[in-house]
Amino acid sequence: MIASLTTRIFAIFWLTLALVLMLVLMVPKLDSRQMTSLLPSEYRQGAMVEQHIEAELRQDPPNDLMWWRRLYRAIDKWAPPGQHLLLVTSEGRVIGARHNEMQIIRNFIGQSDNADHPQKKKYGRQEMAGPFSIQDGEDNYQLYMIRPASSSQLDFVNLLFDRPWLLLLVTMLISTPLLLWLAWSLAKPARKLKYAADEVASGNLRQHPELESGPQEFLAAGASFNQMVSALERLIKGQHRLLSDISHELRTPLTRLQLSTALLRRRAGESKELERIETEAQRLDIMINDLLDLSRTQHKNALVSEALRANQLWTDVIEDARFEAEQMGKKMDIPYPPGAWPLYGNPHALESAVENIIRNALRYSHSAISISFSVDRSGMTLHVDDDGPGVDPQDREQIFRPFYRTDEARDRASGGTGLGLAIVDTVIQQHHGHVKAEDSPLGGLRLTIWLPLYSAKQ
To answer: Per the database record, which ranges form the Histidine kinase domain (predicted)?
Structure first.
């Protein structure tokens, strides 16, 4: 097996070209209908027939009126079994020819007219040989023999030889398996590399030893790909470890700050300054928790997934949200609850994503939110609407970025950290779905989640 892909392509190209040239140039020479020399036995038979006819003509004196009859008699008498003879005069007249044979006779006479070197040629199931020289006084005739061919060439083979373009087509068909093997040998490692890249894009940072096989070029590419995956994995683990270390280091002074605040409140009582410090400390604690959740969600190599049902997955989340809405004095409408639709994913991550956008709607709505589910053949769709201030169109794609905040009412005063929707977007993408923001019929913001349905055949 040739290890180098460049050498393999070069070798197969020239091998295919050589095969085509060989077939085009050499195969026509294998045509059994080509003009060939007589075998010694055939030449002796023709010479013997020639002598007998000359002797017969000497015994049968010529008749000016019926001169051609004596020629017929001679060739009929001395024709070998299964064959018939014909004579061609110096004027080109053919004696003894059958009507349906005139085309092949004219063709053969035009190619073989030298009695010193008689030849033969096949015409389908017939074969013609000659010429032999017949002396009849002052006249000279050429003797030809027509007999059944010893082995007739197939009509399909004759068609190939008679039509060069068809021969070229057959040659291309013969070389097709070789070219298909070349294409397969090129496409197989490329497909492996593509599948490995898709896994990396979906967050599964694992090495693929099978990429380091095959042609040298793909082997080198596979080794580089695995090195890149290892480097990315080390980088992400380092980043995750850094975030964990930072959060741990931040929690220590944050805890001390909260303790100091509690001690100060006990000694000095309540004050606006203490309330502000405590609020900011709680906000910082929530932000650290959200940041760690986002980091774990984005950098988790593979979520533990299982077959799920939409109604079982989100019923408790919806009921909890309904209770919170009642406590906040807001109306929650669920015109189309989830059905028993099959999904596949991590239940904790999907519950958290839907809970996040519902709480987002509760936080920013004025008095009402709406939750509706729908399904079609391709997947399941969830709409969460609110009657809050909404989001400007130019900001709708940006709100899924970490720490992004709008300039309107959905700002830091609401108490959010700017990480909730980023976590939602990451989770939904890991489950091969998408989330988007648009105008709501209630006047605020609509957040839409789409997830593919699960089939047991997958």
So the answer is: 245-455
Helix (H) or strand (E) holding 168: helix 164-201
> And the tokens for 394?
């130019």
Could you give the angle at the alpha carbon of 280 between the alpha carbons of 278 and 284, nearest 5°? 115
* The CA-based dihedral angle spanning residues 388, 394, 396, 401, taken in that order and rounded to the nearest 10 degrees: -120
The pLDDT score that the predictor gives to residue 368 is: 93
Chain mean position to CA 252 = 56
Whether 159 and 20 map to the same domain: the answer is yes
Same domain, 162 and 14: yes
pLDDT digit string, tens, across residues 408-437: 444 444 545 567 788 888 889 888 899 999
Domain hosting 83: range is: 39-152
Instruction: Report how far apart, in Å, the C-alpha atoms of 259 and of each of 177, 252, 256, 262, 266 are.
Output: 79, 11, 5, 5, 11
Structure tokens of 432? 């091969």
Mean pLDDT of 202-221: 75
**Helices vs. strands in the chain: H and E counts, helices first:** 11, 13
Do 115 and 163 lie in a common domain? no
Closest among 320, 330, 335, 318 to 388, alpha carbons compared: 330
pLDDT in the model for residue 299:
53
**How far apart, in whole angstroms, are the C-alpha atoms of residue 29 and residue 145?**
24
Query: How many domains would you assign to the chain?
Result: 4
Q: Is residue 360 part of a domain?
A: yes
The answer to whether 240 and 246 are in contact (CB under 8 A) is no
119 Cα distance to chain centroid:
57
Burial environment of residue 363 by CB neighbours within 10 A (0 to 12, 13 to 18, 19 or more): middle
Q: Are 255 and 148 within one domain?
A: no
For residue 366, indicate whether it is catalytic: no
Residue 63 in tokens: 């008749």
In a domain? residue 210: no
Name the catalytic one among 248, 348, 432, 434. Answer: 248
User: Which pLDDT score is estimated for 195?
Assistant: 82
Query: In this structure, are 182 and 287 located in the same domain?
Result: no
